[in-house]
Design goal:
The chain is mainly alpha-helical. The protein is 66% helix and 0% strand. The radius of gyration is 35 Å and the shape is flat. The relative contact order is 0.05.
Length: 250
């Protein structure tokens, strides 16, 4: 009878998983069939992982594949049909949800909200009723929206009243609300904002001829909505200060 010391070590020695199988009575696989241990054959593991990924991709229909134009168009039409069916089933609930979702985190003008409802197929009469109701409770306030828009765009983009008036008009703000909102910006505010824009632009215009710099700076202010008189006045002021300081590039 062979002693325990002379018996060959079982196949599961050194592998915890196979050892557990042996302990509960399962027959561990032979060494030829056992998968390579981690760290001993990294390349084999990579190949197995790749095969598993390919198998998952095949089962999911190639989820990582870029869809064709026809597939994207079919998906878009399906979404539109589903949205239309939802509106037809309960138009008021859908319209109310559209308004609340659109107003979450950001004010909107009445025109913007009306366009949103029309795009989703909400009937005009129902849309008008809901917009009136939202206006009555203060969720829609074009005057407050215009004031907020003017203050934000003038501060962040340096836009002059002329450009801001055009933006408010595109958003459906009436003339009275727009005029009231634009009164926030006086001549001093315009001059300061224009000068800040010019000073920032000058940093990237080193070495330019004086006339070229003047033309480009004045054109930039014109695109921001500043009148020609104010634009050239601010540009002359900024360039004159540079000359007084004996700036080498001007």
């Amino acid at each position: 009878m062979t002693s325990d010391e002379s018996r060959p070590a079982p196949d599961w020695v050194g592998d915890v998983g196979l050892g557990v199988q042996a302990w509960v009575g399962d027959s561990p696989p032979t060494s030829e069939a056992s998968p390579p241990a981690r760290g001993r054959d990294r390349r084999g593991g990579d190949r197995q992982d790749g095969a598993r990924r390919e198998g998952r991709k095949a089962r999911t229909g190639g989820r990582g594949r870029t869809r064709t134009w026809e597939e994207r168009e079919a998906a878009r039409l399906a979404r539109e049909e589903a949205a239309a069916a939802e509106v037809e089933a309960d138009p008021e609930a859908v319209a109310r949800k559209i308004l609340l979702d659109t107003l979450t985190g950001q004010a909107r003008s009445r025109r913007e909200l009306a366009d949103k409802l029309a795009k989703r197929g909400v009937p005009d009469e129902l849309a008008a009723q809901l917009l009136d109701r939202f206006t009555e409770v203060g969720l829609i306030d074009d005057a407050a929206y215009a004031r907020q828009w003017v203050e934000s765009r003038h501060r962040s983009r340096g836009l002059a009243p002329r450009a801001l008036a055009q933006e408010l008009r595109r958003k459906g703000i009436d003339d009275d609300d727009a005029r009231s909102a634009l009164e926030q910006i006086d001549e001093g505010d315009q001059h300061a904002a224009a000068r800040a824009l010019v000073d920032k632009k000058l940093r990237s215009m080193r070495g330019l001829d004086h006339q070229v710099a003047t033309r480009r700076l004045a054109g930039m202010l014109a695109r921001k909505g500043y009148a020609a008189g104010l634009a050239f006045s601010v540009v002359r002021e900024a360039l004159g200060e540079l000359e007084d300081e004996s700036h080498p590039d001007f």
